[in-house]
């Protein structure tokens, strides 16, 4: 019996245990210590964002964005239906309404034409997500948000280190969010970051992240005591998590090289099979630099999705579907709205199969996945 090939396995970076031990021995394991400073510097280097704050999760970074944009009842935020729920809950928690729009099926990314249509006088922001780290059509989206005079937020959970030719993902929006959940390319168990590209939001972001206090300014010696200034919560990452994150970010190139090797092997090894069966593989536009966060096959129908996943499971290979469109989910129907049925999101979600992809996969495991998929007819 062959070992099971899991769908995702967190990368183990060289210094993570030593870093953790150093934190535990230092008696400083709450947030904003030396590893937070180091990981934050690595993150701003990597993304070229002017400012970043580490957070407890991407979800919390999205919550912070909603607070910083002063969302409230009556306000609307336009976002894709095919995404993770956190971008929508961040809107709903402020009493505002998520307006779901459809995707471009060739990428799974938000369709700019639908964004333009969904903008009303109540729209306060557009949130996009770079699916699989493939860049959203940012030029078109930025034209729409600029014309409407509203901010863009990037949920960049998949897009760390990606670029659309010249622009780093996470730097187009006024705010962008990262996830360091252990299913992401770089992880620290649970964690995230808020990238702050608009300097004017930085001081308030520090306050919101520190329970609504100006503790960050106090620690820098800018004020002689810290006081309650605003709403906020405890959104800062523990130094224990930051210690792991710092070591992971130091290994970023190694992680990405390993992931791209798997991605390329799937693209090469499955091209002929996909052609024969008239299926579509996740495509690689050479003008964009994706992040090899995932690799997928689009089956002709929902039965094909179910059958391929179970075929692979029979061979000891874990494959997976992905997001259930938010507009069709119970909370989406309760809290959100759409202009029309979002058929492309529904079709994409019901047909897509993601293959195992993680940095530690061996050549033999990658070959087994390729052979396993090719044996499906
Ligand atoms: C993983 C993910 C999130 C949530 O990240 P957490 O750090 O677990 O809160 C949000 N958005 C997208 C697109 C994700 O993939």
From TrEMBL:
Gene3D superfamilies reported in the protein's UniProt record: Aspartate Aminotransferase, domain 1, Type I PLP-dependent aspartate aminotransferase-like (Major domain)
EC number(s) on file: 2.6.1.59
Domain of life per record: Bacteria
Keyword match Transmembrane helix: no
InterPro entries: DegT/StrS_aminotransferase, PyrdxlP-dep_Trfase, PyrdxlP-dep_Trfase_major, PyrdxlP-dep_Trfase_small
CDD domains: AHBA_syn
This protein's record includes keyword Transferase: yes
Cofactor(s) for this UniProt protein: pyridoxal 5'-phosphate
Pfam families for the chain: DegT_DnrJ_EryC1
Keywords in alphabetical order: Aminotransferase, Pyridoxal phosphate, Transferase
Gene Ontology MF annotations: dTDP-4-amino-4,6-dideoxygalactose transaminase activity
Similarity remark: Belongs to the DegT/DnrJ/EryC1 family.
NCBIfam families found in the cross-reference section: PRK11706.1
Name listed for the protein in its UniProt record: dTDP-4-amino-4,6-dideoxygalactose transaminase
Source lineage: Bacteria, Bacillati, Actinomycetota, Actinomycetes, Micrococcales
Gene this protein is translated from: rffA
